[in-house]
Design goal:
Helix content is about 40%, strand content about 30%. It is of the alpha/beta class.
Length: about 190
């Protein structure tokens, strides 16, 4: 069954509850009369509530209606915020400076409103010491707890240990904050 409403000659009921082009109630009329009214006013007869008894049909310019609804859907998609999962890979024997760099990346991602998947890769004998990786992930989680929370606790997955950290603020909030900060920076100083 198609999502498109039935229009004009595709409507197959004996009578319809007719609604005028400006939303006024015309009443229950036979289908032939409703089609005649639609032809006279150079509009389409569109079935808007097919499950009602009798079905509700409205007089409207169907092409214009389809265009406007497509524009509304497009605008809604444009304003929708997509949460992206960023990934950071670490090793159990990480240098302190490298750890700070990776932590900086995690902080940047969380501030932008993205989720972060932190993966610790074990090689060789490191696989026999998963507690090193778990300790490192817990340290990272406590370092960034003001920006995000642990969504998925550390889990061993083959040679890797994985943890997911989610941001406290939503993507849309972070985007709005960045836009406000940018506008503030670009505003001319009036002193």
């Amino acid at each position: 069954m198609s999502a498109e409403p039935r229009i004009n000659d595709r409507i197959r009921v004996p009578e319809v509850r007719l609604v005028g082009p400006n939303g006024e109630q015309v009443g229950i009329v036979p289908l032939a009369k409703a089609l005649e009214i639609a032809r006279e006013s150079d509009l389409d007869l569109v079935e808007v509530a097919p499950t009602a008894r009798p079905p509700v049909a409205r007089l409207m310019d169907y092409g214009k209606f389809k265009y406007e609804s497509a524009m509304k859907a497009r605008e809604a998609r444009k304003n929708q915020a997509h949460t992206i999962i960023k990934e950071i890979k670490l090793r159990p024997k990480i240098d302190p400076h490298d750890y700070e760099t990776k932590k900086g990346h995690v902080v940047r991602f969380l501030k932008a409103g993205d989720k972060v998947k932190v993966t610790i890769m074990f090689r060789g004998r490191e696989q026999s010491r998963p507690e090193l990786g778990r300790r490192l992930l817990q340290r990272l989680a406590s370092d960034v707890e003001e920006l995000g929370f642990v969504e998925s606790h550390p889990k061993l997955d083959g040679r890797n240990m994985i943890m997911v950290i989610g941001p406290h603020k939503k993507k849309a909030e972070a985007k709005a904050e960045r836009a406000a900060a940018k506008a503030e920076r670009e505003a001319p100083d009036t002193v």
